[in-house]
Amino acid sequence: MTVRVLLADDQGLVRAAFAMLVSSAPDMEVVAEAGTGREAVELARSARADLIVMDVRMPDLDGIEATRRIAADEDLAGVKVLVLTTYDTDEHVVEALRAGASGFLVKDTRPAELLDAIRTVAAGEALLSPGPTARLIARVLRSPDAPAPTAGGPEGLTERERQVLALVARGLNNTEVAETLGLSPLTAKTHVSRIMGKLGARDRAQLVIVAYESGLVTPGEK
Prior knowledge:
By secondary structure, this protein is an alpha/beta fold. It folds into 2 domains: 3-128, 3-Layer(aba) Sandwich (Rossmann fold), CATH 3.40.50.2300; 150-214, Winged helix-like DNA-binding domain superfamily/Winged helix DNA-binding domain (Arc Repressor Mutant, subunit A), CATH 1.10.10. Helices cover 49% and strands 13% of the residues. It has helices spanning 12-23, 37-46, 63-72, 92-99, 111-122, 130-141, 159-169, 174-181, 185-199, 204-214, and strands spanning 3-8, 28-34, 51-55, 80-85, 103-106. Strand 1, helix 1 (12-23) and strand 2 (28-34) form a beta-alpha-beta unit. Helix 3 packs parallel to helix 4 and helix 7 packs across helix 9.
């Protein structure tokens, strides 16, 4: 299946470089480019993109608000958003994940990593750059002025589901979760799906936020 990609960045040279890279992949095509968040929302509706590579900082409407509007649009329910940021300490990333982004990458990531990230998010996985993401979320969500939680806590989960959630929050994928807990990859995937359903989480990125908000995982834990 060819992944239809929309590129949203206010810098024309950056968009051109990303477009060249994405177009070089046999399983991807660039269907539209946006220079503002507002354009990204409009083109998401008209270009039938599967995934949007979204810059955080853009004029008119920033990437966070654009992501929020896309996630709230029922007609765009299947569209994934991969946020790009200049630094992995950009605290706007947490807002983007809350808004519905499926993950993020820093802009200086290697070309092959960006293509792999697009494939991963388009396939329904989430939470790219897991190490930086976990550290960032831990710091921001445990600050005094952190926003109130937006999803249910893990109280209704079974002990096994809590174990799985804790590992997901530390950046492990389904295969790594399975190996750590002695499960089959399919069982680990089933647990993750059930946890998302119970918590009302859109994807793995939001599971990480829930885990840190609830205190199930704390900064520095291994």
